[in-house]
Amino acid sequence: MSSILFENVRLIDPASGRDGKGSLLVEKGRIAALDPKDAPKAARIVDGKGAVLCPGLVDMRASFGEPGAEYRESIDSGIQAAVAGGITSLALLPDTEPAIDNPALVHYIRRRGEETGLVSIYPYGALTKGCAGTDMAEIGLLKKAGAIGFTDGARAIADTKQMRNLLAYSGFLDTVIVLHPEDPSLAKGGCATASPQAVKMGLPQIPACAEAMMIARDLRLAELTGARIHFGHVSTGEALGLIADAKKRGIRVTCDTAPPYFAMTEADIGDFRTYAKLSPPLRLEADRQAVLAGLADGTIDAIASDHSPADADDKRLPFAQARAGGTGLVTLLGVTLQAGLPLLEALRLLTVAPARLLGLEAGTLAVGAPADLCLFDPEEEWTVTAGSLPGRAQNTPFDGRNLKGRVLRTFRQGREVFTAKGLPA
């Protein structure tokens, strides 16, 4: 594998706090030196022209359709979207068809990722068999097979006693449990957050408190069992208040959010825009502001894409019947850069923070680390256009949105896996 010397770049490494001009040398797929005095004569030179060079993004929450629903998004199509978004490490949810609830499927997902050579894929294991919320999956065997954590994806576990048992057992394995924070009975049949707009549109509603109620329950169970829990796509101010308080009390809890919850509100469902039908649903402006505050004060530990693919038939239905979910891989960086955070902090939430939560060797520019890199122009503007995005799924809630921050090149283990159109390969 040839050497690569990145010159004339703004090096940003959230793990060390570095942010400044410099150069970086890659040899044998790993970072060999920062600001090297000498480089191999045969090294390939990449002139960054002042662009940002940072660790490849680490997405800790995404779904593909494979296995079972490849027509929505296969692994091959999904990783094309991932690398176009600067993502080099991807954690996949297990609520596929069949669910990732046995070691053979964990091995299958990891092998498929390696076969592509483009992205490192880390599968979660199902917390319950079939992600059905009842019988515990063989989480010990799944962890041994390579599952990085356990979750039922976008399905909450309603049975409180079973949730206690799951958390108690997970404590023996010292593994993270990722939870969908939504009371199933309150959310059943709903498709929009409870609000005057939902009433006006005649849409079945989900009270915002459904999120806080489930989080309150699971925090109490985590305190009881000592388990390590992580809440995905937190979207309400009340829930964030509970999490912040729990952290102060020493409960082992972390959480993430996704770009729609700090960049959009329920007003964006507009004229029954099914691309903006998400789970959890888009919230009120006060909740959006609370999520922004949670990002700024550290209550929220990471930002995930929450990529949830759908095909045209999934979305070309009345709003209440349409499939919930939106794509998020390509837009993850661009939308995050609009959140008003310092660039170093925004990138921390997308790189080293999720990597540390999952125990991955990723998200840093340290010498010796894998050369998973993202080169991007934070000032270049582009327009999100459904139908022309990389990947099979095009159901982006940000369709038509102008973003600032374009990925120019993505490298995995020193090999270039994405180049923006108009740039030399």
TrEMBL record:
GO molecular function, one term: dihydroorotase activity
Domain Dihydroorotase catalytic: 50-238
SUPFAM superfamilies: Composite domain of metallo-dependent hydrolases, Metallo-dependent hydrolases
Pfam family, one: Amidohydro_3
Cross-referenced InterPro entries: Amidohydro_3 (IPR013108), DHOase (IPR004722), DHOase/Allantoinase_Hydrolase (IPR050138), DHOase_cat (IPR024403), Metal-dep_hydrolase_composite (IPR011059), Metal_Hydrolase (IPR032466)
Statement: the UniProt record of this protein carries the keyword Ribonucleoprotein: no
TM annotation in the entry: none
The protein's Enzyme Commission number: 3.5.2.3
Source species, domain of life: Bacteria
Annotated ranges, domain Amidohydrolase: 335-380
Keywords: Hydrolase, Pyrimidine biosynthesis, Zinc
This protein's name: Dihydroorotase
Species for this entry: Parasaccharibacter apium
